[in-house]
Amino acid sequence: ADGSEAEISGNGTRCVAAFLAAEQGKSQVAIRTGAGVKTCRLVSSEAQRFTFEMNMGEPQVGDEFSIKLASSEVKGVPVSMGNPHFVVFVPEFFPGWQAEAAEIGRHHDFKYGINVELVITTKKDHIQTRFFERGVGETRSSGTGSCASAVAAIAAGKCQSPLTVEAEGGAQIVRWER
Predict the structure, then answer these.
(1) pLDDT digit string (tens) for 103-153?
(2) Residue 114 — φ and ψ, nearest 5°?
(3) How far apart are CA 43 and CA 51, in angstroms?
(4) What is the C-alpha separation between 85 and 50, in angstroms, rounded?
(5) Exposed, middle or buried, 108 (CB in 10 Å: 0-12/13-18/19+)?
(6) Of all residues in the chain, what percent carry a pLDDT higher than 90?
(7) Is-contact 19 13, C-beta < 8 A?
(8) Residue 103: what pLDDT?
(9) Which segments of the chain are extended strands (E)?
(10) Residues 36, 175: Cα–Cα separation, whole Å
(11) How far apart are CA 71 and CA 90, in angstroms?
């Protein structure tokens, strides 16, 4: 990580909620983030494993557009979950995808950089995704990245809500009703 401050970490927010549930018995908490107050409601807990429902607020979805890279051109959907994302639909995760994602993330169209998600649509209610976060690089999981991926897939008509977002670090269920 480069030490820069993100507007919000969806996974980080849930970690704070899990700490408060474990230490103080809280079943619902409001957590102030750089992207506003997020409310987390405890759905279930087993040992030290907690499942939360979190209201991420209304996403901002832009129209798909292309950007030119050094050796290719890619199309993506810009989505803000309180932090910026560029969601690229792909048929498969190709070797070396991280280099292309890094180039997208620092493209001049994104003044402050952008989080990049590569998404494979597998079914109407299921996607697979990979994350490349600005200031960090490849990550196995991303709460806001999962939400942005789901929102882009639903907005593009590729999927419907609720949607399972599968990543290397596990799966999350995302609901978004327009």
Answers:
(1) 999 999 999 999 999 999 999 999 999 999 998 999 999 999 999 999 999
(2) -155, 150
(3) 5
(4) 26
(5) exposed
(6) 72
(7) no
(8) 98
(9) 28-33, 36-46, 49-55, 60-61, 65-68, 73-80, 84-89, 115-123, 126-133, 137-139, 163-167, 170-174
(10) 19
(11) 17
- Write out the two tokens for 63: 């129209």
Give the distance, in angstroms, between the CA of residue 164 and the centroid of all CA atoms in the same chain.
12
C-beta pairs of 65-74 under 8 Å, 24+ apart in sequence: 67/104, 67/107, 67/109, 69/100, 69/103, 69/104, 69/107, 70/103, 72/100, 74/100, 74/104
Q: How many CB atoms lie within 10 A of CB 87?
A: 27
Cross-strand pairs, 133: 137
Q: Are β-strands 170-174 and 163-167 bridged in parallel, bridged antiparallel, or unpaired? A: antiparallel
The SS3 call for residue 46 is strand
Global pTM reads 0.91
Tokens matching residue 70: 């050094």
162/37 Cα distance (integer angstroms): 23
Enter the tokens of residue 85.
């994302």
Tokens representing 4 are: 């820069």
